[in-house]
Design goal:
Helix content is 46%, strand content 22%. It is of the alpha/beta class. α3 packs across α4 and α7 runs antiparallel to α8. The chain is globular, with a radius of gyration of 17 Å.
Length: 227
């Protein structure tokens, strides 16, 4: 499905979000990146927007790796990286449940709008926990469900009915029917924070974005862990 929509993926992201997706990714960079980071992994990197944003702001000594399961998405990410990045991003084809990365090797892991697509949420979190160094951070940017009654009254008709029709006109209808379905069945903000803690992350914090349409969660692998 993601391979089929890869060619129109960026266009639809900008149109359907009104460009808000760019602001959300920039927020991830501001909140999660630290000057001392030396290895960053962006999981489910798609066409590379967050990995490239991290590459622009990270230090010259930092290595940035983008990992995705979809080869067509990675092809676009590589082309974008060749045009835009002053320093290279290393693009890797890989499964989020079996990452081809060493344990305790990353200072920061990010995932934007990808964790709800994992076959196992717990498995993906355990794998990211494995790859992070003690003291390393995980930042999850994902769609959420607004709580405000007025926002819900405006948002859900668009999300459930208008968005799939727009997606069908420009790209693939089934993908944009899948999107709202996957969001509605994904844990809410508080529940995701609890699952992160259950998977071994500490200092978990989260904030609602754009009236709860999306959320950013950040957690840390405890420093005393060495395996």
């Amino acid at each position: 499905m993601f391979g089929e929509i890869s060619g129109r993926y960026d266009l639809l992201n900008r149109l359907l979000s009104g460009g808000t997706d760019v602001a959300w990714r920039n927020l991830v960079v501001r909140e999660a990146l630290r000057p001392a980071d030396r290895r960053i992994v962006d999981l489910a990197c798609g066409t590379g927007d967050l990995a490239l944003a991290l590459r622009r702001k990270a230090s010259s000594a930092c290595t940035v790796v983008g990992v995705d399961f979809s080869r067509p998405m990675l092809r676009i990410a590589r082309r974008k990286g060749a045009r835009r990045a002053h320093r290279p991003v290393h693009w890797v084809e890989g499964d989020g449940l079996r990452l081809p990365l060493a344990s305790n090797s990353a200072d920061l892991m990010t995932i934007a709008f990808g964790i709800r697509n994992m076959e196992s949420l717990d498995g993906a979190l355990r794998e990211m926990h494995r790859v992070l160094r003690p003291g390393g951070r995980l930042a999850i940017l994902e769609f959420s469900r607004p709580g405000n009654t007025l926002v819900k009254a405006l948002y859900y008709p668009y999300f459930l009915h208008v968005l799939p029709r727009l997606g069908a006109l420009i790209s693939n209808r089934s993908a944009y029917l899948y999107l709202p379905h996957s969001v509605l069945h994904f844990p809410g903000r508080q529940e995701l924070a609890r699952i992160m803690k259950r998977s071994g992350f500490g200092r978990v914090r989260h904030c609602a974005l754009s009236f709860g349409i999306a959320a950013l969660h950040i957690g840390e692998k405890p420093r005393e862990e060495t395996t």
